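Data availability (excerpt). The following record was deposited with the supplementary files.
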Amino acid sequence: MIAVRNGSGRRARLAALGAHVPARVLTNADLEKMVDTTDEWILSRTGIRERRIAEPDESTADLAVKAAEDILRNAGITAEEIDVLIVPTATPEYLFPSTAAVVQGRIGATNAAAFDLLAACSGFVYGLAQACALVESGLARNVMVIGAETLTRIADFTDRTTCVLFGDGAAGALVTTGEPETTTGFLGFELGTDGNGGKDLLLPVGGSRNPPNRPFAPEDAFLKMNGREVFKFATRVIADSTTRLLEALELSAQDIDLFVPHQANTRIIDHAVEKLGIDPSKVVVNVDRFGNTSSASVPLALTEARNEGRLKAGDLLLLIAFGGGLTWGSTVVRYEPGPVTA
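Predicted structure:
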């Protein structure tokens, strides 16, 4: 689906960012001691040098709480001013209560509705679409979206093709009401799903099909990925989705100030940059230091770009993510930080 924002009325504003990653670093050299791989093999195929790993006593909600606190600091508001809290995650604290509910209680967002969103690595962009709709419909004023993951908990560290890819972290954004006369906000979204490809990236055990209270093969407790098919899907959709959205908005790649793709693999990103004709200096890449953090990937890259001075107020952003489902989502939005009113 393509949804293009037009007309007058309420505008949703991307107003603040925040992130948190675990302190522990797992390098390629560390992985060489754990599984049959080498730094050269990992780097040449993925572009990843290291990733962050949650400590045994750190959970998805722990990371999300710290990211939420960072967002609140940057937004200059209190938790009580949040109307809705959305946590996209593929590694929830529990099946229920939702991770969002746990975070809502811990940060004191006493006035907020809270729910999780499951769209795997596309979750943050899907969450932004939800936040935009809530704000522009008048149902909410301040919506916080936090992608949070502890993917290393479901990674098989005997499988060199998958365990080298993933890292843990949390990051997100505050979407708030902007003045229609001065706010650009979200120009449009392109969201999609190919459910027939779901078998290519899945966690076999834990749902109603294969509940954990029935016998299962130990290896089925870890994520499974058909790397070849997922790579083909990703290289196709990252270019196709952004092309469709830019054409619908009557924009070109030259109109974009920063391109922030899902941080899964540098080869996928490089392919998209070349096909779309994007200036490489406008591309944000941090997969080399954090690996694939799924729903936290895009907001983590955005937050880093802001911290490094690459992301500035007024920049027009192109965000694109893809992942399990198989799902994808892209959006064009202007970054418009500033005072947030309750």
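Summary of structural features: Residues 227-249 form the longest helix (23 residues).
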